[in-house]
Amino acid sequence: MSYTAPVKDMLFVLSELSGIADIAKLPGFEEAGLETAQAVIEESAKLCGEVLAPLNVEGDRNPSSWKDGVVTATPGFADAFRQFAAGGWQGVQHPVEYEGQGLPKLIAAACIEMLNASNLSFALCPLLTDGAIEALLTAGSEAQKRTYVPKLISGEWTGTMNLTEPQAGSDLALVRTRAEPQGDGSYKLFGTKIFITWGEHDMAKNIVHLVLARTPDAPEGVKGISLFIVPKFVVNEDGSPGERNDVHCVSIEHKLGIKASPTAVLQFGDHGGAIGHLVGEENRGLEYMFIMMNAARFAVGMQGVAVSDRAYQKAVAYAKERVQSRPVDGSAKQAVSIIHHADVRRMLATMRALTEASRALAYVAASHCDFAHRHPDDAKRAEHQAIYEYLVPIVKGWSTELSIDVASLGVQVHGGMGFIEETGAAQYYRDARILPIYEGTTAIQANDLIGRKTVRDGGAVAQALLAEIAQTVEALKQHDGAAFASMHRHLSHGHDALQSVVAFVVANVKRDPNAVFAGSVPYLKLAGVVLGGWQMARAMLVAQAKREDDPSFYGAKIATAQFYAEHVLPQAVALEASIVSAKGADGVLALSEDQF
Amino acid sequence: MSYTAPVKDMLFVLSELSGIADIAKLPGFEEAGLETAQAVIEESAKLCGEVLAPLNVEGDRNPSSWKDGVVTATPGFADAFRQFAAGGWQGVQHPVEYEGQGLPKLIAAACIEMLNASNLSFALCPLLTDGAIEALLTAGSEAQKRTYVPKLISGEWTGTMNLTEPQAGSDLALVRTRAEPQGDGSYKLFGTKIFITWGEHDMAKNIVHLVLARTPDAPEGVKGISLFIVPKFVVNEDGSPGERNDVHCVSIEHKLGIKASPTAVLQFGDHGGAIGHLVGEENRGLEYMFIMMNAARFAVGMQGVAVSDRAYQKAVAYAKERVQSRPVDGSAKQAVSIIHHADVRRMLATMRALTEASRALAYVAASHCDFAHRHPDDAKRAEHQAIYEYLVPIVKGWSTELSIDVASLGVQVHGGMGFIEETGAAQYYRDARILPIYEGTTAIQANDLIGRKTVRDGGAVAQALLAEIAQTVEALKQHDGAAFASMHRHLSHGHDALQSVVAFVVANVKRDPNAVFAGSVPYLKLAGVVLGGWQMARAMLVAQAKREDDPSFYGAKIATAQFYAEHVLPQAVALEASIVSAKGADGVLALSEDQF
């Protein structure tokens, strides 16, 4: 099997770090305890390992193709999508009233990880459909919800998000697509959207495009953007797909990776106008899109975890099999499998530690989302929501940035074979490269982390998390041994570094915005390194308490945490130095434009 | 122009950091001063910018192809190679007596950088030919030198290095190719070699394969490997290519990058035996290969510098052109070109600082090689040779590892467009990935750095370099201002970190080899970061003294050095922590094989 879901590790994070037992106490989640999680995860693991994972290489070699406006997915994908839909997997986290399964986001997070680890290109179709569902549930009318959501959940139809235009990438203020009211409540849309993931394909009977556009009298900038539903086939009164709408795929991109996922250029209204319907109120499109984007950004963060794990699994398998050179300590007279060489071990441990830390942080974020939605106490809900929102840009930015490093190490472990496409390690390196770009680049995540998530509340959420980290640091002190000593030392330094940077950001953002934003991505990475390290420390404390029950499994948790403490956490101090000691912008902005 | 050689920057490094004026005082290099360097570099810049750079994308889209044993290079390559050869560029650093130009390696380094920046795939052919020339000059008989070297220098023929076999990658002890003596002084070779760069092609009349193989009674392991010349066409008495030899290209690889460069599987002796001639003495093949590999490893390090610079140039051009979003400091009411955004500026500054530092370190290494070859004083020669040898694995390992990060940042600067192959930024990300692998992986470089270069002399060379760094730290103290304060502080910390790691390596390598080798790559990176930072500091001191002469140019040197100090040098302390405080192997080796 080319991908084996790390079910035991996932369940460990669910039960020991993300409080699945407490989530099962929330109203509506009574059935969603560890047992349910295990059953769901094991079932998903089967589909992902047996059906989707083998198609991953196929999709890379035989990408989706375009001809005369028609996009044909990689052979095998349409059938796999039918199996995925039939299993109810699109509905895992969506409401029962629209025929979803109504499970916690925490369990869905594990399913999303497996889906993406097995086949990143394939998984993008459900990922974008999730986004469309979220947008409709957030802002759609009851009729819109009834018309579209069950069809999206059943997999009969799929969804897309249409934001980007050639001149409007990160800057949505520049969106130009027009929506002209027709007097009957409908609109006609005209414009070009690019980078539309799964914007056209043959896996479903209809495609529900959610499109940002401007109405004729809309104000300029982001305050004049509205959200529209534009289905590929206009939906009849009875809910069946009717006539072909005036939205056409004029080409798909030739990309570095995720080749099976068609990235479409969509032309709206070249033949009289694409019929669309307003979602929610006019000019509030960006606001709705942001709600949906938080979900999509979290999911892209999971993609980072997923591709890291896939790359790790492949590298471990190769390192155990490939025989080359004697060990430096003279422990064998013959060449040994390369996993016995210290540097290969270091690379694998790095891959493993980063994967585990980013997974744990993401799942913890998902659990905050569940508490934020279902906790009976208003104040608690708000508190969890604030933590979730603080964590989303970190999960998105950090998990995806590190996935490139992990995939790159995966190639390196394979040596020369890693550079040969048939080996397969290179695909992860290529695929991962999109993750820190789409759904908001790392810089966009970092701006969000600074602006909406740190400065707006004066650093309160960050401080609350720091206080929790400080408690963990205290708990580490109670244990003996090198592993705990290392984690105590480095997490403590990491805590201090993050605290100092948060204070710097809050104190200087108004007075010297360039200084603060010059350190935005380093701040995001620092937060990831420290919050990820905190999860590793929590895991280590649990593992120590349970060690006797399963010495190998819990021992590995402690060893991986120690490695993280010694090889990843030290970056925190270096990042702090770049942001704070350097007083931010001086070094970054000292070169003028023409000096570059 | 898609690549403009950074001539001014190169000449700055040559004259201010690498002592070109002193090199011109060495016997045989009297003509090789700054003026010659400038003339040579400007001429090379033309060929590279005008002829080779435009073929780079073409090679990626239309790779070299194999049919029935014949390899056809990308259209345009053969003609470009003729121009390259006609210009005398293959002979830049080779002896005049074999029709080379006899210029210092320092000037050659700049030429190698330009060649590789303009077209990495193309440049590999001359790079391997250089290796073959070095091997023949080192160990060949006078007749062999006369027969082969002038033809290789003229570009009539090209050369290859045949080390790797399917079971023998990093571990050459496992080489199995057989060489059977024929009684007439010749041998017949039988075996399979893989990963042979430009192992077969249509750009030259003959290909001179240098092949590692075992004679019948050779001892096992690396002590039983000999070096053979196996030309594609057996060479006639008169030096002309004669009958086709029994070495055939049975396939070429489908690779992640450097696609125009054919990577051949060569089959020796399937039709009776490939005629070969011993180079030097039997069983000393590895020793000769190592001499040649030092040159090749240095050149691969230059490839890292080169691809970094190319990626940097492309990213800067895009960042100046692409308009998106208003600046965070409110300095403009409209969207501005993205170079005005702090994080884009940070990414570009990172790319620039790493490129400049790795270039400076590599050129400085090259100048030590020149002094080592030509200095009239024996002791001085030995001293420079030792420094050169210490620097080679660092130049190779560090410059190539960072080139991946730089190329990856280059993609990121382009946002979504970076992921589209037509943009071209992705090619550098793919191409760069081979650099830390071939000619010895980073781990192999790091083992060399520890074993032969640090431990063997008890850390003496490293300490000598540290003493020089300490002097630079002192000199920085004499200057005021934030830039100098930052560099003083961080270079001082970097010095201490490197000193502590060198001491740790020397003290523990026998007692606890795993602990030391678990930190081998971190040590290599630390040495790169600190020695690169040292060059930036030296550049800064020169720039300060000359600032009035050219305020923009020298000001940029100071600003780039400050950025390096604040954003790159802090890694030194983190790397030291991973190696020393962690006591090395504990965290790395704590997980047993079956726990992965």
Provide the fold topology.
The structure is a homodimer of 596-residue chains.
Chain A: H1 7-17, H2 20-23, H3 34-52, H4 54-61, E1 65-67, E2 70-72, H5 77-86, H6 105-118, H7 120-139, H8 142-154, E3 157-162, E4 178-181, E5 186-197, E6 206-213, E7 226-231, E8 233-235, E9 241-244, E10 247-252, E11 263-268, E12 274-279, H9 285-321, H10 342-374, H11 378-413, H12 425-432, H13 442-455, H14 460-477, H15 482-508, H16 513-518, H17 520-546, H18 551-567, H19 571-581, H20 585-589
Parallel strand pairs in A: 3-6
Antiparallel strand pairs in A: 1-2, 4-5, 5-11, 5-12, 6-7, 7-12, 8-9, 10-11
Helix pairs in contact in A: 1-3, 1-10, 3-6, 6-7, 6-9, 6-10, 7-8, 7-9, 9-10, 9-11, 9-12, 10-11, 10-17, 10-18, 11-12, 11-13, 11-17, 13-17, 14-15, 14-17, 15-17, 15-18, 15-19, 17-18, 17-19
Structural notes for this entry:
Chains A, B: Belongs to the acyl-CoA dehydrogenase family. Chains A, B: Its cofactor is FAD. Chains A, B: Residues 283-449 form the Acyl-CoA dehydrogenase/oxidase C-terminal domain. Chains A, B: It comes from Paraburkholderia franconis. The structure is a homodimer of 596-residue chains. With 596 residues, the first copy, chain A, is α+β, with helices and mostly antiparallel strands. Among the domains of chain A are: 65-73 and 140-145 and 157-282, Butyryl-CoA Dehydrogenase, subunit A, domain 2 (Beta Barrel); 453-590, no CATH class. Chain A is built from 20 helices and 12 strands. In chain A, strands 3, 4, 5, 6, 7, 10, 11 and 12 form an 8-stranded mixed sheet that branches. In chain A, strand 8 (233-235) and strand 9 (241-244) form a beta hairpin. In chain A, helix 1 (7-17) packs across helix 10, helix 6 (105-118) packs across helix 9 (285-321) and helix 7 (120-139) packs antiparallel against helix 9 (285-321). Chain A is globular. Chains A and B meet through helix 9, helix 10, helix 11, helix 12 and helix 13 of A and helix 9, helix 10, helix 11, helix 12 and helix 13 of B.
